[in-house]
Amino acid sequence: KMEKSMIRDLLNSMSHFHHIFSVDKGKTGSAQMYYQSIADLLMLLMPMLNDIIDSEVPSNEQLSRRLEELDTFVDDAKKFLEGWHPLMSKTYN
Fold first, then answer.
1. Cα gap 70→7, rounded to integer Å
2. Which parts of the sequence belong to the PUB2-4-like N-terminal domain (predicted)?
3. Domain of residue 82, residue span
4. Nearest Cα to 17, choosing from 53, 50, 46?
């Protein structure tokens, strides 16, 4: 049960990430490239996470840890891209 609520929260974070950056057309160049790479990865994971919610997967400590790590990754990526400034491209490229 705990994993299912974690997965729902994670799916919500992933959807929020996708919505924020698909609406923000001001990001160009490297920021858009990073967003697209992350969004593509998240879109691959979403159906698998939905399948886990729909299944009767028993509670698993390793799964819980990985879900927490993925949630942290999504949050960190969102913060990084929200704070992106065009001049950063020269630093990171």
1. 10
2. 3-92
3. 2-92
4. 46
- Which tokens in the block code for residue 24? 């923000």
Its pTM surpasses 0.70: yes
Widest CA span in the chain: 48
- How far is the C-alpha of 30 from the C-alpha of 49, rounded, in Å? 28
Token digits of residue 3: 């994993």
Over the chain (93 residues), the average pLDDT of each successive run of 10 is 84 88 67 84 92 83 91 91 66 50
How far is the C-alpha of 66 from the C-alpha of 62, rounded, in Å? 6
SS3 breakdown of the chain: % helix, strand, coil, rounded to 5?
A: 80, 0, 20
